[in-house]
């Protein structure tokens, strides 16, 4: 009597594409973030020299071009300020609950922003990097320098809101407008912080890296299997 060969067990399904991509991105960002953090904490001379040269140049420009400096102060204090960015996330959370009844997504968004604020202040306290000091400052700021809280918050918020918008299936014009606004905001907040002399360039780079890393980790958490359909399925196009 011949036995039928037993079929091999089915292979375990691969993780969904968004989670798989976010995991790879997060791994790369984690390596870059840790490397930069190590160089800043170790006071690596080539990095300090590069920071000093760039900061001295932009400070001369800030003192000379007062009109540009005043515009940058308005942008950094009111448009790209971390509080403004967090209020944008709060407004998005309210919209998610009101229009989509997406309670889990709104909670995920709020918790991510709260965790980011804790991480930001913890890294600042651990590294305790002094801010640039000038004889003729054009602006002031508090707390330690690394990483830039403005750059980190803008990167995180813009990344999360873009990702949520993409899941909702926006039209081409809306999507391109949102991407352009996000890019201008993230790049612009970095330029203004260095121009105003309150951050070293590597502080801004660290803020970008940490913000993007937290955004990628948040996507991984959101995409983790929870035994139910997602709250924000992509909109079908007819």
Distance between the termini: 57 Å
Which structural category do the helix and sheet elements fall into? mainly alpha
Mean pLDDT: 90
Q: Enumerate the spans where pLDDT stays under 50 for 5 or more consecutive residues.
A: 9-14
The number of helical elements comes to 8
Largest sheet: none
Mass-distribution shape: globular
Model description:
- The protein has one domain (23-224).
- The model is unreliable at 9-14 (pLDDT under 50).
- It is mainly alpha-helical and 238 residues long.
- The chain is globular and about 55 Å long.
- The protein has eight helices and no strands.
- The longest helix has 25 residues, at 17-41.
- One of its GO terms (molecular function) is undecaprenyl-diphosphatase activity.
What's this model, at a glance?
With 238 residues, this protein is mainly α. Helices cover 71% and strands 0% of the residues.
Protein traits:
238 residues; membrane; PAP2/HPO_sf; transmembrane helix; mainly alpha; 71% helix; 8 helices; undecaprenyl-diphosphatase activity; transmembrane
List the topology elements:
Blueprint: H1 17-41, H2 45-64, H3 66-79, H4 82-100, H5 103-127, H6 149-167, H7 172-195, H8 201-223
Helix pairs in contact: 1-8, 3-7, 4-5, 4-6, 5-6, 5-8, 6-7, 6-8, 7-8
GO molecular function, one term: undecaprenyl-diphosphatase activity
Transmembrane segments: 21-44, 78-98, 105-123, 143-165, 177-196, 208-225
Enzyme class: hydrolase
